[in-house]
Design brief:
The chain is mainly α and about 200 residues long. The chain has helices at about 1-15, 20-35, 40-60, 70-90, 95-115, 115-125, 135-165, 170-195. The mean pLDDT is about 90.
Length: about 200
Amino acid sequence: MEALDYIIDSYDIYKQKLLEAFIVGVVTYFLSFIILIPVLGWYLYAKLFPKMVVWYYNKLNIKVDPKYDVAFKSIIILLLVTMIGFIIMIVGILLINSIIIGLIIMIIGLILSILLLYTLFGSIIGKVDKFKIYAKKSVYLFLISLIPSFILFLILYIILLLFVQLIGPILLFILGILVEIFYPPYLFTLYAVAIENMQS
């Protein structure tokens, strides 16, 4: 029941600051576009994302002692691998070998995004002070985040199933945007609660 406790506790914290969650969600949404700018965009994202999460945690009264250098390394390495794979796929879209190579690199980036979860959010909170992969803890964070993700998916699926005739493409688009804005801040909260309660 430990994971469920984290999910419930983080929701209780999250729902108290929905305005702040909205602000962070909007910023996160727009930050996701700057990573499409090679190098400069990656650098800006790696610099700005941890500061934004720290601001949010402070609003939630979550104690933080950020190690920005570790957080920066976690993000920039992840972005370098993932976006280089993406670029290779785009540039070599007519060459099947390039597509495969790019896809493999992007998959490696996806795996890294899971393995660096604890390093990134642990460094933002202050529990990690050096760049290192904490595979077990990171996979645990990823697995518990799948529970609310599945619940959200189920709710959205039921809504679409019951009101498919009433929900037009515009309302569907708006619903998707709202999920993209409000859900990431909840995950940030869940990671913080879980990390704070993990044994060293």
